[in-house]
Amino acid sequence: MAKLLDPSRDKREAFLRMAQDWLEHGNDRYRLALEDFDAYLARAHRFSDAAQTPAGWVPGIELWLEDDAGEIVPACACDSG
User: Fold this and answer.
1) pLDDT for 38-53, tens place per residue?
2) What are phi and psi of 7, to 5 degrees?
3) What DSSP element (H or E) covers 42?
4) Mapping DSSP to helix (H, G, I), strand (E, B) and coil, where does residue 30 land?
5) In the beta sheet, which residues pair with residue 3?
6) Which domain holds residue 14?
7) Are the C-beta atoms of residues 60 and 1 closer than 8 Å to each other?
8) Can you say whether the dihedral through the CA atoms of 24, 40, 63, 10 is positive or negative?
9) pTM (predicted TM-score)
10) Residue among 48, 62, 64 nearest 14 (CA)
11) How many domains does the chain have?
């Protein structure tokens, strides 16, 4: 059964496969993750904290959907503001 996960280093390889697939289809939304996964994770965690969210941005959370095979299929960012 598919499940929602908080972003984590445990799913790094699966997330990077998904990010690479997006890039190969013309979408560079996850370019930072491909270049520096730790920086991407730090940003995702930072943006969930209103005190650390940059001016003009709305705090929110990012969740990853893991399928039955352990692959990350999409990522979802949800604004909380």
Assistant:
1) 999 999 999 888 898 8
2) -60, 135
3) helix 37-46
4) coil
5) 66
6) 3-79
7) no
8) positive
9) 0.86
10) 64
11) 1
